[in-house]
Design a protein that fits this description.
By secondary structure, the chain is α+β, with helices and mostly antiparallel strands. The chain contains 1 helix and 3 strands; from the N terminus they run αβββ. The longest helix is centred in the first third of the chain and has 17 residues. The radius of gyration is 23 Å and the shape is rod-shaped.
């Protein structure tokens, strides 16, 4: 769309209006930004928690040394709590 402009504008007022309408329609296709808290637990012990708001802090990394891992079979739980 931007490549169709000449000297910072489109050729006619109609083209300007159509471009604005297209931008509004495109913006409505974008997903709602994240807004939740994620928690990581292993064997019932919380290893980490991260609040995801918008697109800041897009990930959470949790490192557990091998010698700190529980022996035997245990559940790894990832929980997502949505904000209302």
């Amino acid at each position: 769309m931007l490549a169709l402009r000449r000297h910072g504008t489109w050729q006619t007022h109609y083209d300007n209006a159509q471009a604005l309408i297209a931008l509004v329609e495109y913006s409505q296709l974008q997903p709602t930004p994240p807004n939740f808290v994620a928690t990581v637990q292993l064997a019932g012990k919380k290893l980490g928690q991260q609040k995801f708001e918008g697109y800041r802090n897009p990930s959470l990394a949790v490192k557990v040394p091998m010698d700190k891992l529980p022996r035997g079979r245990h559940d790894l739980q990832l929980q997502k709590y949505c904000h209302l």
